[in-house]
Design goal:
- The chain has 13 helices and no strands.
- The protein is mainly alpha-helical and 253 residues long.
């Protein structure tokens, strides 16, 4: 949920995640006689007034969660027939959980290509970000499922969209040592030397994680081995610190 705004999404503008986490705690704190710290100076009539304003929103959140939870559970378990039944009965394909993840994000994260395809066919949005700005392509890159990654890219996923930490899908693929995923992303135009908020590139991630094959792939595709992150480290420095001799040898060539 970008920016943490309570009306960023959900049914009818009500974001269940925000109100479940923030609104409920606030409402409980302002109930008359709640004794919540720091709220004692609010006069009882005002507390009642604010509570009455929040109550419909809280009910909206509870209703949304009750409707959406079965779909998330079915997706996470990989039950395609159950997902089809729930969506056919009206479950929202772009619903969000407490982390602002959609059912499509969960399916991509688990590598369920058939469910990903079904949700996309039913209107799932590949560009909806999580709270930290990750998209379904980040999730797919981390899981490493080639079919899911290709499908998402074919359906409009942005190959170089970064999260709030400046991390792109290629970085996540390298972070998990998913060389095949990295190759697909590069074939679709991913910027090989893009860096995150700390100055780390995908090559930094692969070298730091000890992923020799992925490191070789990135070097073969033109990754800059001389890039230094904000701490002043090159990928070679990280490999040496971790004791990855084979990777260090690759990076010294």
């Amino acid at each position: 949920m970008e920016g943490g705004h309570p009306f960023a999404g959900g049914r009818g503008g009500c974001n269940a995640a925000w109100f479940t986490r923030e609104g409920l705690s606030l409402a409980v704190g302002i109930l008359p006689g709640s004794g919540a710290p720091g709220l004692g100076r609010i006069h009882t009539p005002m507390r009642k007034f604010i509570y009455c304003l929040l109550l419909p929103l809280l009910l909206c959140a509870q209703t949304a969660w009750a409707q959406d939870a079965p779909l998330f559970e079915a997706v996470a378990a990989g039950r395609l027939e159950e997902v089809e039944r729930l969506v056919g009965a009206g479950a929202a394909v772009n619903a969000r959980n407490e982390n602002a993840e959609t059912p499509l994000y969960v399916a991509a994260q688990e590598g369920y290509a058939a469910i990903v395809r079904f949700l996309l066919d039913k209107g799932a949005d590949v560009k909806i970000p999580t709270e930290n700005g990750e998209t379904v392509l980040h999730a797919a890159a981390l899981s490493g499922d080639a079919a899911v990654i290709t499908l998402l890219l074919d359906r409009g996923a942005e190959v170089d969209r970064a999260n709030r930490d400046g991390e792109r899908a290629l970085f996540w693929a390298a972070l998990a040592g998913n060389g095949r995923a990295a190759q697909i992303l590069l074939d679709h135009g991913a910027k090989i030397n893009a860096v995150d908020a700390h100055g780390n590139s995908a090559l930094h991630a692969a070298a730091d994680g000890g992923y020799e094959t992925t490191t070789w792939l990135l070097l073969d595709q033109g990754a800059n081995r001389a890039l230094r992150n904000r701490a002043g480290d090159t990928p070679l420095d990280l490999a040496r610190e971790r004791g990855y001799r084979n990777i260090a040898e690759l990076l010294r060539r």
